[in-house]
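Thread amino acids onto this structure.
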């Protein structure tokens, strides 16, 4: 068995893997067939395989997760103060009710564009301008980086 790019070549000895041969000696297995191959091998050698789709891209530090949940709760409270249902907000934001409920739970996988559409549906779209408005640390770093040039005294 060897891999060339995203293609896996498997010896033709094992007929369970694929039915269509690539050539006389190898079967070709693309990405969508690899999972099936792994399960067959795991069953054969009595191994356990975890093929979950969780990635580190979805994991946030605990502090950021809490902030996402706080933002979601604030959006939910704004929706309830306006006496709107999740379905009504979803229709106005042109997204699914499931997505709106994910926003209200603070799920980090929702795109920022959908957050903006939900805020627009709740007439809170100007609140996005408050993000990073007070960048005290950035301004302090910028001030430190400025070079104060001194000019030579005027000749008389």
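Threaded sequence (156 positions):
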């Amino acid at each position: 068995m060897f891999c060339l790019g995203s293609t896996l070549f498997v010896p033709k000895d094992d007929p369970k893997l694929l039915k269509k041969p690539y050539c006389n000696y190898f079967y070709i297995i693309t990405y969508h067939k690899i999972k099936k191959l792994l399960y067959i091998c795991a069953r054969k050698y009595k191994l356990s395989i975890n093929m979950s789709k969780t990635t580190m891209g979805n994991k946030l530090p605990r502090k950021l997760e809490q902030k996402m949940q706080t933002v979601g709760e604030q959006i939910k409270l704004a929706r309830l103060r306006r006496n709107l249902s999740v379905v009504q907000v979803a229709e106005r934001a042109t997204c699914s009710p499931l997505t709106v409920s994910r926003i209200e739970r603070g799920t980090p996988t929702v795109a920022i564009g959908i957050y903006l559409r939900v805020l627009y549906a709740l007439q809170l779209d100007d609140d996005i301008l408050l993000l990073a408005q007070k960048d005290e640390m950035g301004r302090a770093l910028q001030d430190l980086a400025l070079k104060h040039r001194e000019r030579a005294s005027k000749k008389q």
